[in-house]
Design goal:
Number of helices: 1
Low-confidence stretches: none
Largest sheet: 4 strands, mixed
Order of helices and strands: EEEEEHE
Mean pLDDT: 88
Radius of gyration: 19 Å
Number of strands: 6
Distance between the termini: 55 Å
Amino acid sequence: MHARLYQRPKHAMQSGRARTGEWLLEFERDDRMRADPLTGWTGSGFTAGQIQLHFPTEAAALAYAQANGLIVEVVPLGPKTLKIQAYSDNFR
């Protein structure tokens, strides 16, 4: 089974950094989503796609994946860019 491992980014709408250091492990979908003929809603029988596992470190997540025979793709966190701006720049 394939999984994706990534670090939680900082939420754009808040200035705090709570829970940004933890790592998330999500399972990749094995089958396609299909429409239910009666209701028209889309779904699949793959229930592991609804699970997110939280780990304090990348090493702990990789150890869990290796112990359970998962093929893991580690997605790196994008670079952090700061826009340095003075208050007076708002009035130019």
